[in-house]
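stuck on this one:
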Amino acid sequence: MLFELQNKLILQNAEVILYEAFFSKEESGEIFKKLVSEIAWKQDKIKMYGKVLDLPRLTAWYGEEGKSYRYSGIDMQIHAWNEVLLSIKNRIEKVANVNFNGALLNFYRNGNDSMSWHSDDEKELGKNPVIASVSFGETRKFRLRHKTNKNLKTEVLLTNGSLLLMQGETQHFWQHEIPKTKRQIGERINLTFRYIL
């Protein structure tokens, strides 16, 4: 199967595995179309440096009832799983060995949309969370940097249909980002599945 093509990143204090073609090109195209049209995307606001600004991407939160999520001061409104999300979730759970109960969805409309440096280390995710990040659409650069040793950093390309698993101590010791780019690029949708305690 395609997802057997995996690449384990060699990083200190981290366990990160990239599956470059977890979904085929054809599957990814169909999934992307469904996500664009069937997800309740919204434009969140964030307070930075005393100003209220638009978050540089569209977002949505899906999951099981009662599994709310808050990050960067934003309370995410929960939506029930739909058919396409359940299909993706069921497939990645077989590789991750985790029953995910929530997913943060991000819609990057162009190169101006981004995600700043952060760790997925909110207390409701537990001690060593498993984060399964699936990408559809445009390829985007994904950067990682160590929290204490700033010389430790790397980047990978998250391609259409790829799955990135971050587990073990990764969120304790590493941050990650999707940087802006001046290149003319198309849309990308990223789903980060997680288990909320």
